[in-house]
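Why does residue order matter? Because the sequence determines the fold. Keep that principle in mind as you read this record.
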Amino acid sequence: MLINVLFDYLFAYPLTSLAEKLKVYKMVNMTRFQLFLISIATALINYLYQHFIEDVLRQRRQ
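Structure:
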């Protein structure tokens, strides 16, 4: 999860600035901090879902 936070930060700040300079996209309705928080929240939901599914599959095997 710590590595994911690092990469979310890199995406939200330096890479988004680079993309805006290259005119790939522009942040209009969302701040970089909001993008960062949404990325972390999405990752957390995915990790929790994965943990839940692995528990269900483990119980079925037993």
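The chain has one domain: 2-61.
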